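User: Please predict structures.

Assistant: First:
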Amino acid sequence: FDDKEQVTHVFDFEKAQIQPSVLEVVRSINFLCFGGEFSEDQFESAEHFLRCYEAIIPVDRDYLRNAIWFWHFRQAYSLWEHTEHYEKNNARVDDLVEKRYGYLKYYSENIETHVEKIMNRISK
């Protein structure tokens, strides 16, 4: 809060975990830049995101490449949305189930091309 009692920052620790920061970069790119669509415009947004991030914190290219693969595998093996929906009767995650399926389908068919498109954009 600021001195006028207005909210200035929000910290969400719900899914916080100890991990290399580049994994959060990849997660953010997927949710903020791609959002389930993988057009040229989305890749341009991802490039912009990465360039802005790198202006502050350098990103190791090998870590980034591995993090994209790791994020995909983590998504493939995670049952979070299904557990929330079926075991906890949480309907708020229903939209995420469909998005997860879209990500899994896209990445399972295009992961190598996707990684190369990202790497080519930032390796300049």
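Second:
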Amino acid sequence: MQKYKKHYKIEKNLSLRDLLEIFMQTSLEDSADKIIVKKYFKDNNLSWMIYKWKVQIYGNITKTDYISKTWPSYFDKISTYREFTLERDGHILAKATAIYVIVDMKNKKLIEIPQIVKDSYQLIQERNFEKIEKASIKGDIYCEKNFSVEREQIDLNGHVHNTSYIFWLEKCFENNSLIKKLKVFSITYMKEIHYPNKVNLLIYKDGENYNFSIKTNDFNAKGKCIFNDWKVGLPLLWLNKK
């Protein structure tokens, strides 16, 4: 079993949202030939949803050619782990793990991973991270902003697309050079956000870590950013804003 790979010609310096969208597109293409699974999902009104992301960044992501690779690595009772790398000339510049769950859209509940899914995806038992830590909210308040959910942020499942959470996070850091030094990012999606709605984002500084919460009337997501004081070379992601 080989990892699925796709070539990308990058025409701009990437934001974290760009990077995750590349990974998600690569995953979609890897799953495109799973016709039996697609029919099973349609017949049973099921949908994949991302529960967690963890991303680690190693090198400059600039305008050139890259290879994005993905592979499923692990099933537990209700979760599927999918790994990603972005590579150039054999060197890994970023890696990520996405944890997916399957949702019964009619009854709005998680289901166990069906056997038909396990039979259709051949695992490569290579994990990017030994563990993905639980998100915690602690520290002193660093930034607080409120946002209105826009219609264009709603995905095909009828709730806010997972990269929109990162857009809100970018807005809190947009005037701070820290965002150019992002090293590790993680987020746990806890509850859907629908349109129309108001969102509150709080970022907490805990030592060298920045924890954040995104909520409407309840916690909808929690996560963490870790930055690095890069002393050699260019900043990693936000070299130029879009």
